[in-house]
Design brief:
The complex is a heterodimer of chains A (91) and B (243). By secondary structure, chain A is mainly α. Chain A has helices spanning 3-43, 48-80, 83-90. In chain A, α1 packs antiparallel against α2 and α1 (3-43) runs antiparallel to α3. Chain A starts with a helix and ends with a helix. Chain B has 243 residues and is mainly α. Chain B has a two-stranded antiparallel ribbon with strand order 1-2. The chains are: A mainly alpha (91), B mainly alpha (243).
Chain lengths: 91, 243
């Protein structure tokens, strides 16, 4: 096992962990926001446009963090470690 | 074939140093498009009767205007045109990535907001506008709110205040950037020519960009709206405080 393959393996595991956490967290968060919005609309149908504004505000603020961490994960994968180049080199 | 992301054509300007030429050109184009669009709407108000374009676009304009009024109260009136223009301008900037100008060999194209050099100045613009408005309204006493409710919360409050433009810029940048990054990922999957059993993955995956484009349109609209909305909220936090 060369040090390069070790680096590639570690980076891929880290990337998988990041995507796992990001997907899990954002799915749970989006689900909570959407379910609360549906509850609020069911309770007060006349407040629907107002609730929609805050639904999109919440989802937008929430979605930023997974996307930022996803961008950083791809930065780690493609720029810092350059996994595709290393993989081509290992073949 | 090689896909690239984050690569920009460069201009070397004497005083400013190196600038990203495609970002600057696309931003200028977006400014022209936004000005023409707003002028086109404004021109329709010359006639006393309501025209079709007024009726269509007044919905959007009224939505943002109501948001400003609802959040800032009657004192928000002077900021209504600013936030409407900001929303429409950011919408145009975000949707520029929809058109394949760069693939056609033109010097501009791609969303300028997929460049951190575009989003940071806009976030700083919001930040300094809020400082300016608040200081003009309350004087330097405005900065007293940093030491509330306790004096030793000063570092945390300052950090929170300074984190706002940073998150504002990073949110917009990464949302648009990851949208473009997805295309590069899809392109590299197509290029890899992987086949699972009888299924050629390249052909299966090549339908995905169609859906990603929809997703990007949605994300671009939401993020433009969110940038505007957070600007309004931060402004309301700054000027609604009791002193």
């Amino acid at each position: 096992m060369t040090s390069e393959s070790l680096v590639v393996a570690a980076t891929l595991i880290a990337f998988g962990l990041i995507v796992l956490g990001v997907a899990f967290g954002s799915a749970v968060g989006d689900g909570i926001v959407a379910s609360k919005a549906v509850e609020a609309i069911a309770r007060q149908p006349e407040a629907r446009p107002n609730i929609f504004t805050f639904l999109f505000l919440g989802v937008g603020v929430l979605e930023a963090f997974p996307i930022i961490s996803l961008g950083l994960a791809f930065y780690l994968l493609l720029v810092v470690v350059k996994v595709p180049d290393l993989l081509a080199h290992l073949k | 074939m090689k896909e690239e992301i984050g690569a920009h054509s460069l201009w070397h300007v004497p005083v400013l140093g190196t600038v990203h030429a495609d970002t600057v050109l696309t931003t200028w184009l977006a400014m022209v498009v936004t000005l023409l669009f707003l002028g086109w709407i404004g021109n329709s108000y010359r006639s006393p009767r309501a025209t079709k374009r007024q009726t269509v676009f007044e919905g959007i304009i009224n939505y943002v205007a109501d948001l400003v009024h609802g959040t800032l109260g009657p004192r928000g009136e002077p900021f209504v045109p600013f936030f409407i223009a900001l929303f429409i301008y950011l919408f145009v900037l975000n949707q520029f990535g929809l058109f394949p100008f760069k693939a056609l060999g033109l010097p501009f194209g791609g969303s300028p907001t997929a460049d951190l050099n575009t989003t940071v100045p806009y976030a700083l613009m919001i930040f300094f506008m809020i400082q300016f408005v608040a200081v003009r309204r309350f004087g330097l006493r405005y900065y007293g709110h940093l030491a509330k409710p306790f004096v030793w919360l000063l570092p945390i409050n300052t950090l929170e205040e300074l984190a706002r433009p940073a998150t504002l810029a990073a949110r917009l940048f990464f949302n648009i950037f990851v949208g473009e990054l997805l295309f590069v990922i899809i392109a590299s999957i197509i290029n890899a020519k992987v086949s699972i059993g009888p299924v050629n993955l390249s052909i299966v995956v090549s339908i995905l960009p169609f859906f990603i484009q929809f997703f990007n349109f949605f994300v671009g609209t939401i993020q433009a709206f969110l940038f505007t909305l957070l600007g309004i909220v931060y402004l309301s936090l700054a000027i609604a405080e009791e002193h």
